[in-house]
Amino acid sequence: MDNTDLRILTVLQRSGRISNAELADKVSLSASACHRRVQRLEGEGFVKDYVALLDARKMGRPTTVFVEITLSGQADEVLEAFEKAVARVPDVLECHLIAGQYDYLLKVVARDSEDFAQIHRRHLARLPGVAQMHSSFALRTVFKTTALPV
């Protein structure tokens, strides 16, 4: 991994649909050398995937809720059952096992507070091993990125 690879990754994170010719120009490489490097970076797993980032508001899901979950225990089977079940909830965008006051932090999207109440009732309250849940509604997203520092 050299500086050219880092420049390629920086550009790809912000413009995943950029053509190889444009990318090569931005990082000062020939198109063929750039293509080889991108293929290597993909093959080595530095680039996991290319996705379209949708606008949650335009998709009718403008409400973001962070849900802190405490489980009834820490046994492997409790953690595994919870993780397997939460992965099937379509409104949960992220699930993180965390250290601290809670066991998991979820990022959930909803149409509004009433929709979240339905998601809570139908899905979250039925997750296995949950002892406590605390929900916090985001009032406004101040900053959001998917780009890692390179």
List the helices and strands and how they pair.
Elements: H1 3-14, H2 20-26, H3 31-43, E1 63-71, H4 76-86, E2 92-97, E3 104-110, H5 113-122, E4 130-137
Antiparallel strand pairs: 1-3, 1-4, 2-3
Helix pairs in contact: 2-3
Could you characterize the architecture of this molecule?
With 150 residues, this protein is α+β, with helices and mostly antiparallel strands. It has 5 helices and 4 strands. Helix 2 packs across helix 3 (31-43). The radius of gyration is 20 Å and the shape is elongated. This is AsnC family transcriptional regulator. One of its GO terms (molecular function) is sequence-specific DNA binding.
Biggest sheet architecture: 4 strands, antiparallel
CATH topology of the largest domain: Alpha-Beta Plaits
Share of helical residues: 25-40%
How much β-strand is present in the residues?
15-25%
CATH top level assignment of the largest domain: Alpha Beta
CATH A-level architecture of the largest domain: 2-Layer Sandwich
List keywords for this structure.
transcription, four-stranded antiparallel β-sheet, 150 residues, alpha+beta, Arc Repressor Mutant, subunit A, Alpha-Beta Plaits, transcription regulation, AsnC family transcriptional regulator, elongated
